[in-house]
Design brief:
Shape: globular
Structural class: mainly alpha
Largest sheet: 5 strands, parallel
Length: about 425
């Protein structure tokens, strides 16, 4: 006579299923240490829900196997997958099988529609205090399901001082089933009082080979283009996807990398600066125009304007007030998009001069711009390493100036004139007295 069938253990069987199929972790390219840490935390969280302890919960807080925490700060360079890691972790916590990637909990959490997973990000320059207060209010509620109330803040580096203060109380006195997942580029970008109350998880830049493999497998990109996009993006997965699938993005990058050849005189510097800023503005406009129109149409529909119902003078005044607020938000978003686009262009220039430095120093490291090797070697042959470093410093100073709200055109003009003057000094020193 056979005995009763033993019940499946969610702390072992589920982990094996997820490990076999990757589940919700499939989008975390080249982040094996992060996946291991988050799987251990997911297992500890499952044990806590089941009223049991686990080895992961007993691990030292600073170790890779340390267990569950009520607050996490996920950092990593742009494009490393911070928000993907937060969404995947949220899905795994809500999943009965710890992140299978197939169940309703996983799919809705990843899509941002799970009732117990709240995702907040901003297209503005900062996160407002009223947005964070609403999250704090929700964090005090019990989850609708049987597991966790999870709040994901994808732009924690954009918290205003007042917003950070509003969040601090919830981090100091968390509800029993509440988890905060905060994302920022570096730990220094988070307010000190916030980061000191979070467990830190640092993502690395994905290896070029891993990014290229993802482009080939998911987007059916040929090997040569995938290798180029992975190399040119410097590990930024979203940027690599755009370079691999959009010819206009590749053309824009080519125009940026042509700038060093256009600095023959002051007029060339001014024209090149205007071109860079215009390219950034055009890219931002292309990204926001359709979105702006959709938001305005949705607003008019909500007020019944799309059906021709004007609703009286009171409703018209109310609509005008809301439209003005929306216009202001869209202008701020357009400004941020333009800054981000210009910053990508400046980083492409940094990578160009970095390649020149690699060749000049005979370092032997792979070039980011391998397709421009002949041009880079010619420039390295006539430019000493210390001069190349001055070029890089000028570009980084331009980035800082734009961050400090210097007009982008003025900052870029000053940068390019500085690059030209540096080159002239070097040319004069080679000619001698």
């Amino acid at each position: 006579m056979s005995g009763p069938v033993p019940e499946a253990d969610p702390l072992t069987d589920a982990a094996d299923v997820v490990a076999a199929g990757e589940g919700v972790w499939a989008d975390l390219v080249g982040q094996e240490p992060t996946i291991a840490a988050l799987r251990a935390a997911t297992q500890a969280a499952a044990a806590r829900i089941a009223g049991r302890s686990s080895d992961a919960d007993a691990a030292p807080a600073g170790s890779a196997a340390a267990g569950m925490s009520h607050a996490w700060l996920i950092t990593g360079p742009p494009g490393s997958g911070r928000s993907n890691a937060a969404r995947a972790f949220a899905a795994a916590l809500e999943c009965e099988r710890q992140g299978c990637g197939e169940c309703s909990a996983c799919r809705t959490a990843l899509a941002g529609t799970h009732p117990d997973v709240t995702l907040i990000r901003t297209d503005q320059l900062s996160l407002r205090v009223d947005e964070i207060r609403e999250l704090v209010r929700k964090s005090a509620m019990s989850p609708v399901g049987r597991r966790w109330q999870i709040l994901v803040v994808e732009d924690a580096d954009r918290l205003t001082e007042q917003a950070a203060d509003a969040l601090l109380k919830s981090l100091e006195e968390p509800a029993a089933r509440t988890v905060w997942l905060l994302c920022a580029p570096t730990v220094e970008d988070a307010v000190p009082t916030i980061r000191s109350r979070c467990r830190l998880l640092v993502l690395r830049t994905p290896p070029t080979e891993a990014v290229a493999e993802v482009l080939r497998r998911r987007y059916d990109v040929d090997a040569e283009l995938a290798s180029f996009a992975a190399r040119a993006s410097q590990g930024h997965i979203g940027r690599a996807r755009a370079l691999a699938t959009k010819p206009e993005v590749r053309e824009l990058r080519a125009q940026v990398l042509a700038v060093p050849r256009q600095l023959g005189d002051l007029a060339g510097c001014v024209n090149a600066a205007a071109s860079l800023v215009r390219l950034a503005a055009d890219e931002a406009r292309a990204a926001t125009t359709e979105l702006d129109a959709a938001e305005k149409a949705e607003l008019e529909h909500a007020y019944g304007m799309s059906t021709g119902n004007r609703g009286g003078r009171g409703r018209s005044r109310q609509l005008q007030s809301v439209q003005k607020e929306l216009d202001d938000q869209q202008k701020v978003r357009a400004k941020r998009f333009q800054r981000d686009s210009l910053d990508r262009a400046l980083l492409d220039l940094v990578a160009y001069y970095r390649d020149v430095l690699v060749v000049a120093m005979r370092a032997g490291a792979p070039l980011v711009n391998e397709e421009l090797r002949a041009e880079i070697e010619a420039r390295a042959a006539t430019t000493p390493p210390e001069e190349v470093l001055r070029h890089i410093d000028a570009i980084l100073a331009c980035r800082e100036a734009i961050t400090a709200n210097v007009a982008p055109l003025l900052a870029v003009e000053a940068m390019l004139i500085s690059l030209r003057q540096s080159s002239l000094r070097q040319s004069s020193s080679r000619q001698g007295p």
